[in-house]
Each structure stands twice: as C-alpha cells, then as structure tokens.
Amino acid sequence: MPWYYPNFTNDMWRIFGICFFDDKMHFVDSENKTYHLEALKNFLARTGVALFDTCLRIRRTKGTASDKDLEVVEKADLDGMLRALPECRAVVAAGQLAATIFTEHYGIKAGKMKMGDHIEFQFEGRTISLYREPSSSRAYPMKVEHKAAYYAKMFHDIGLLTHNT
C-alpha cells in the first residue's frame, strides 16, 4: 500500500479500527494482507485527521523499525505542515523518536514525555497540544488493544471520539 503505515504488521489502522469502530479488522484486507486504502482516506478526511511524517528520510541501522535503530537523514518541514493545516489543534507523536524531533524543533520543555501525556505549545499564535502515544510498530511490545486505549483517550480529549470504547 503506497501510503502511511503500509506494513501489514504495523498496527496503526487496527488501532483506528478499535477506537472508532470497536473492530480492529475494520480497515484490514486480510485476503490481500493489506488495508482498505480508499476507506481509510475517506474516513480520515471525514474525521479531520491528517497524517505527516517527522522525517522524510531515515536510515535503518540494524534492519528493524525500532526508534533506537533509526538514524534521521532528513527531517520534515514541521512548520510547513502546521501552516498548511490552520485548523490543526493537536499533533500526535507516535513513538519516542517522533516526540523527540517535535519537542526539540519547537523548543518544548517536555523532558521525555511519557506515553499518554500531552503538552500545549504555541505556534504562530495558535495553541496546539502535542500528544505522545505508543508506536504502532510491532517492534514496540504492547498489545494492540492497550495501544488503542491510549489513542482512544487522546481522540476523546480532542473531541474526535464521543463514546467510550
């Protein structure tokens, strides 16, 4: 799948399925071992969720997806991302590396944010909340249902989820 989180073993789209549909298989195309891309895109557009990477290029130093085994080659234009999304009021860092890149770029004094934490920062007159959520990679050892609980709380906090799952 030529899009975000394309690896079938990555749990991001299962997390979204659990949070919004109480069904981790909602976006999963099991037969083809991929995801229903058009359904995902339509859902995200309707819901107001945008996706962006903190890095444009990385180098895997040990062949794994673990943050500790990634070398940043080129960071993304985070300012450009936020300028392109004037309605954006929350950003999710899905993993420690993304959180570190974001906090360093914006001078956010967050130390090492714990999973589930969020902190507000200012960007060009806007208050934006940065959430630190667990990595959706299977390299991060946590059950998908537990990861989804962190995301569900955040989605509820920012008003995208209005029911308890």
Which percent band covers the strand fraction? Answer: 15-25%
Alpha-carbon distance between the termini?
28 Å
What's the CATH class, please? Alpha Beta
Number of domains: 1
Q: Helicity level, as a percent range?
A: 25-40%
Q: Strand order, biggest sheet?
A: 5-7-6
- In the CATH scheme, what's the topology name? Uracil-DNA Glycosylase, subunit E
Bulk shape: globular
Counted beta strands: 7
Instruction: Indicate the CATH architecture.
Output: 3-Layer(aba) Sandwich
| Structure annotation, total helices | 5
Content-based structural category: alpha+beta
Overall mean confidence score, pLDDT: 90
Computed over alpha carbons, the radius of gyration is 16 Å
Q: What letter string, H or E per element, gives the SSE order?
A: HEEHEEHEHEEH
Low-pLDDT residue spans = none
Structural summary, described in words:
The protein is α+β, with helices and mostly antiparallel strands and 165 residues long. The protein has one domain (11-158): Uracil-DNA Glycosylase, subunit E (3-Layer(aba) Sandwich). The protein has helices at 12-21, 37-47, 78-84, 96-105, 144-157, and strands spanning 28-29, 34-35, 55-60, 70-75, 90-94, 118-123, 126-133. The strands form three sheets. The protein has a three-stranded mixed β-sheet with strand order 5-7-6. Strands 1-2 form a two-stranded antiparallel sheet. A hairpin with a 4-residue loop joins strand 1 and strand 2 (34-35). The longest helix has 14 residues, at 144-157. It is globular and about 45 Å long.
